Amino acid sequence: MKPPNVGHALLFARVETKRRIRVLLRSRLQAGAIAIAGVFLFVFSGAAALGAFTLADSLSGTVDAEIVRYGRLTAAALVLASTGLTGIRIVGEQGELDHEAGMLTTIPYRDGVLGLLLAELVGVAAYAALPTLCVSIALAAGSGSAALGASVLVAATTLGVLGTATGHALGYALRYAFTASSRLAKYKTPLGVAVFLAYIYVVGVSQDASFFMPLLDAVGATPLGWVGLLPFAVIGAASVTDAAIGLAVAVVAIPLLLAAAVRGAGAAWYVDEAHTDSRVERDETSVSAGPLERVVGRPSAWVARTAWTRARRAPIKLVFVIYPAFVLLTPVTQAVQTGEIPATLPAIFAVYGAWAAGAGFALNPLGDEGAMLPVTLTSGVPGRSLARGLVAAGALAGAVVVLPLAVGSALLVPFDAVQVALLVVATGALLAGASMLATGIGTLFPRFEGVRISRSRRVVTPSLVAFGVYSFALLVVAAPGLATQVPVVADALADRLGLTTSLVQALGTLLTAVLVGICGYASYRVAGANIDDYRL
């Protein structure tokens, strides 16, 4: 196989790096977030340097074998982390060429692969170079050995390049599999969600290293882990031969991994995309929308069915509602680690589930129509019917998931029968009310332009203003009912007001239902009026 042209690859990497910087800085919000991250990076680097300088004193004498073992484990962790993160990015959006058709007919694809790898290394260096340099300099200054600092720098750089190259090779192989296989392509999104949930579990629930230790020990025992012995070999605490073999294996593996990445990218970029639907569905033509039309009317029932169909065909549009799931991290972690379900967990499930249902289906009624908006506005369907259909879609879809979670966790707390019944009422009211709130707020602050989620795909999501207003309003109306479902809060209020706990919970649920009903209905009417009055 002909090797890539380094000159072309360097030029490609420079252009790609500039493009990524422009993407990051195209909005003030992103630029501000990057600035804040930069401040934290400086603080972290300073703290790491201080710790390394203090640690350098203990490396002047005899080094315990357990500390040397941590060198191998650290090397294994660096390789695995960089491999995993890079692989995920390649399977996602970074494995695509910008203006792919033009690029693949202008330069050999192998030059593009090397260019993407170099651009990825620049991105890694932007985050890792400063702390690595600070630690290396601090170790050299604290120990009085420049060789020790240089060895840390060499080992970290080698492991970073090795992990990034491995991630590229693995990522392109997976990308080819997802592109060529109709079965894998069909389940790509569920697999992505599963990986995200696994990530949440690893980060939040498995807070100690026991989850990773067998894997780290296995990788650390290979020549890849021996690279981490290089700093200890410099001070005579580890075998120089082992460290040299580890470095040699890593240096030899990098070009081999590049060759594998080139072959994988060529296969992924040139393969014909598999079709996930191998058959044409033929349904009987009918104007009936099913049992739902007896409840909300035929036009609204068809709106709900259309919303569900869109979510099933393009679930990526609903991924944004998963991000706030981190609010579940602390109570779920507490439940797993202690074996006891926090009394607040059912309420958190109810609030988050209602929020997600409303945001996913009803927070952008106009923008979600996309190119069909002119047809929708001129179809003769009243605005309230459209809003009612979106409310039904969000409430019913949310109920299927949220009610079992809330009730199941309440039974495990455990709640008594009255508390469970009140929680069910409050959750049901929130599911309907959240979607009604979302329709009105969404029509007041619509968004029509797409948000880029990859180089070749954009999706229309609700506006940030709509998110903020909707989230605040929902928390306000949910507060009385859900706060009183927490036994500690209900008992405190009962003692203060001289009432029974059950009566306090019933009054809280009633107040939430009233607030949700009033605010939700008002928002629903606003949505109907805004849809009817909207002009292109």
Average pLDDT works out at 83
How far apart are the termini?
A: 56 Å
Lateral strand order in the biggest sheet: 1-2
Largest sheet: 2 strands, antiparallel
Number of strands: 2
The rounded Rg comes to 28 Å
Integer count of domains: 2
SSE class = mainly alpha
Number of helices: 22
Report the order of strands and helices: HHHHHHHHHHHHHHHHHHHEEHHH
- Beta-strand share of residues: under 5%
Oligomer: single chain
Quick one: overall form?
globular
Helical proportion, percent range: over 70%
pLDDT < 50 runs, ≥5 residues: 278-285
How would you sum up this structure in a few lines?
Helices cover 75% and strands 1% of the residues. The protein is an all-alpha fold and 536 residues long. α5 (109-143) runs antiparallel to α12 (240-270) and α8 (188-205) crosses α15.
What does this structure look like?
It is a single chain. This protein has 536 residues and is mainly α. It has two domains: 6-270, no CATH class; 291-533, no CATH class. The chain has helices spanning 6-24, 28-58, 65-94, 100-104, 109-143, 146-180, 182-186, 188-205, 213-220, 223-226, 230-234, 240-270, 293-296, 298-313, 329-338, 345-362, 373-377, 383-412, 417-444, 464-483, 487-497, 501-533; strands at residues 451-454, 457-459. It has a two-stranded antiparallel ribbon with strand order 1-2. The longest helix has 35 residues, at 109-143. 37% of the residues are buried.
Question: Features of this protein?
Answer:
536 residues; mainly alpha; two-stranded antiparallel sheet; 22 helices; 2 strands; 1% strand; globular
Question: What secondary-structure arrangement, pairings included, does this model have?
Answer:
Blueprint: H1 6-24, H2 28-58, H3 65-94, H4 100-104, H5 109-143, H6 146-180, H7 182-186, H8 188-205, H9 213-220, H10 223-226, H11 230-234, H12 240-270, H13 293-296, H14 298-313, H15 329-338, H16 345-362, H17 373-377, H18 383-412, H19 417-444, E1 451-454, E2 457-459, H20 464-483, H21 487-497, H22 501-533
Antiparallel strand pairs: 1-2
Helix pairs in contact: 1-5, 2-5, 3-6, 3-9, 5-6, 5-12, 6-12, 8-15, 14-18, 16-18, 16-19, 16-20, 18-19, 18-22, 19-20, 19-22, 20-22, 21-22
